[in-house]
Amino acid sequence: MALVRRSAADLRREANADRLHTLLSEQAKFQLDARVGIGEVRSWRRSLPVLLADLADAGLGHVEVLLEHRLPHSPKRVDAVICGTHPRTGEPSYVLVELKQWSSAELVAYDLVRVPGYGADTLLHPVEQVRAYCQYLIDSTPALATRPHLVHGIAYLHNAQESGIASLKQHAPSEHGRLFTLEDRAELIEHLRAVLDREGSRTAALASADDFLNFHHAPSKPLLNLAAKEIQEREQFILLDEQKVAYEIVMRALHKARAASTKTVVVVLGGPGSGKSAIALSLVGELARSGRPVHHATGSSAFTNTMRKIAGRRNRRVQGLFKYFNNYTAAEPRELDVLICDEAHRIRETSVNRYTRREVRERAGRQIDELIDVASVPVFLLDENQIVRPGEMGSLDEITAAAEARGCELEVVHLHGQFRCGGSTAFDTWVARLLGLEPLPPLPWSQLALPLDDEFVVISAESPQAMESWLLMKQAEHGGTARMAAGYCWPWSDPIMADSGKCLVEDVVIGDWKRPWNAKPDKRVPDAPESYYWASDERGFGQVGCIYTAQGFEYDWAGVIFGPDFVRRDGRWVARRGHSHDPAVKKAGELQFAGLIRNTYKVLLTRGMRGVCLYSTDEETQAFLAEMAR
Fold first, then answer.
1. Which of 290, 398, 480, 513 is the most exposed place for a label (fewest CB within 10 A)?
2. 428 and 479 share a domain?
């Protein structure tokens, strides 16, 4: 969906009357429920009139232009999409435009630039930015995946002369990414005429735009479905904006480390669904295929075991790339070129446990130091709001202090937006307000959801039976995977023997509805997936997942059962230790306990890619959730 859609000629009239930026601001307030910044308004006011004048001079006033069009299942917006027909084929033709006000910029790596006035920030090369937008759009749109030639991309630095951005011109042009400057205006007009028909009708341009806006979009590529191809064949994930910046910063830091023996710690900060694991797997795939020593490590048995199984199913050597944070107690410094620490919030004080050999225990230090020492470029992917167990201490402050103590350079990249949950940033806000993670009060989904958020479904269920039926219906009607997860509020029994053999115990009992938890680690049960694979194995639907099997994974349709450990009383949340069955969390102090329970439900609520269904066992809480989900 675009903030504004009109013909190029109509938009130029609005721009000439100095009204276009106001129109965009009003639509942003309506569609995004956000007040745009002064910088963005200034950009609209200065850049759009130039592009619209060029379209007029190219004889393309009749084409339809979509301004600030959001990519499917993504928070990213394209500055302009020009819709018309191709002059030779008569097919629809779409030109994605990325506009920059830069008058000068310097290439610092193949895909990274620095721009005066932007401080020390490293930005993505605009050609790479629009190329990735084109590829992401094609991959997310079945109708375009079979006809990628309909899509074109340009980056237009309309204030820049060649002398100010000469190094950026090294980027090879393609149909999905060409660079034009102030001095290239004649070439830009020629290129626009080559892909958009000057003789095309207004009716055809409207039809082209209608088709574009009505395309069916497939959800974002699931992480696990691509893991094997990513690691063993070639890059499959399309990284956008800050994701690609993070990737390139790591590759540049590795080059520096090999050339000058420098050591750089890279921290990538982002919430659930911001694309951290896609960055991780893109790096692992590229480095492994290049023969560079690289490991991917987590503190999660479920995630590491699943990656070993999925990514290494055709090549057992690949399984050795996936490790745990506590695997480096006896490692030598710089054994690896790159260590990617996914879910770095799960880093603990030390790596020792009751099974650690005495000689290793005696020389073991802090886990964060071990992880930094073992690689030339340690990379930490971090969400500080996903800490769900006592003893987890991964934070930006902790990593920064450890890096500085070891004389390392530090690079921090912030990921913005939401690629899970239908790409809905409003859902992130809704969850934060629902759980009291921000000071503003909770609001019903219908009041926070925006016109751009209609792809993501939020509902409540009257009972666990109704939730289960809804999930089954969504699977049947729309495909994808569905899972139920709950707070850890029921005992978790070992499997028992029955007449039919070993089976799971139906521990989760709500009225006359009974279901088992997912299998315990190392407790195999016929016809049920091992605990590590609950989220990815189709047999996982019959069990209820807990935080330790759901964290780090995604599925299409999420059912979340709020147990009696977290209830609403007198307009606020109350965490109740006596109703928790998590032996680790129950040991936490009062304030920490409440924070851990709150984070647990935040994680469970953000697993779904296409929709979430809520239910609480507590009557007052259920009434609250029903009101908030309407």
1. 290
2. yes
Give the integer Cα–Cα distance in Å for 502 and 557. 29
Q: Model pTM greater than 0.70?
A: no
Question: Which token pair is 131?
Answer: 């190329």
381/269 Cα distance (integer angstroms): 6
Token pair for residue 250? Answer: 């790591």
Using alpha carbons, list the distances in angstroms from residue 475 to 409, 428, 479: 48, 24, 5
Number of Cβ atoms within 10 Å of the Cβ of 12: 21
Whole-angstrom Cα distance, residue 310 to residue 304? 10
Distance, in Å, from the CA atom of 113 to the CA atom of 164, rounded to the nearest integer, reads 12
Placement of tokens 């016109």 in the chain: 451
| 291 contacts 254 by C-beta, under 8 angstroms | no
* CA angle 323–328–329, rounded 5-degree value: 145
Least confident of 138-152, 154-168, 356-370, 559-573: 356-370
Using the predicted structure, report yes or no on whether residue 222 has a pLDDT greater than 60: no
CA atoms of 454 and 278, how far apart (whole Å) = 25
Strand partners, 83: 64, 94
Domain count, the chain: 3
Residue owning tokens 């064949």: 233
Question: How many CA atoms within 13 Å lie on the side-chain side of 526?
Answer: 7
Structural domain including 567 reads 421-629
327 vs 36, which has greater pLDDT? 327
